[in-house]
From TrEMBL:
Protein's name according to its UniProt entry: RNA polymerase II transcription factor B subunit 2
Classification via PANTHER family: GENERAL TRANSCRIPTION FACTOR IIH SUBUNIT 4, TFIIH, POLYPEPTIDE 4
Location of the protein in the cell: Nucleus
One Pfam match: Tfb2
Tagged with keyword Cytoplasm: no
Gene Ontology BP term (one): nucleotide-excision repair
């Protein structure tokens, strides 16, 4: 599916224009994209193989083969719900300063700081 160059250019601010031009040149030199009549077109072979890699399709089994032995610790929806709730509550407790839970990981703290939800003191 062709994408107008003007649409892609609208995705970046002034500071990123040079990086966009460099990225498009690199993608073009690798024959991943081609620019024709002010639109960008992804190489069909690359698109198809990239889609296979992301979805685990094709004959290469990019995500491996299913395990033939049962999992000792099966994961189900209630387990995932409980885990997500526990993690979320730990973040909230940390943000309000209660000591009911352990400190979130460095990655979570970095995300909270970079999103300006919390400040490092």
């Amino acid at each position: 599916m062709p994408i107008p160059v003007s649409d892609v250019s609208a995705w970046v601010n002034k500071e990123g224009e040079r990086k966009l031009v460099e990225a498009l040149q690199k993608l073009s030199s690798l024959r991943i994209i081609e620019q024709k009549d002010h639109v960008l077109i992804m190489n069909d072979t690359f698109r198809h193989q990239f889609q296979n890699a992301l979805t685990g399709g094709g004959t290469q089994q990019s995500f491996g083969l299913p395990c033939s032995t049962p999992d000792k610790h099966p994961v189900d929806i209630p387990f995932l719900d409980h885990y997500a709730t526990t993690q979320w509550e730990a973040i909230l407790h940390y943000m309000v300063g209660t000591s009911l839970t352990k400190k979130p990981s460095r990655g979570v703290l970095n995300l909270l700081e970079r999103s300006k939800l919390m400040q490092n003191r």
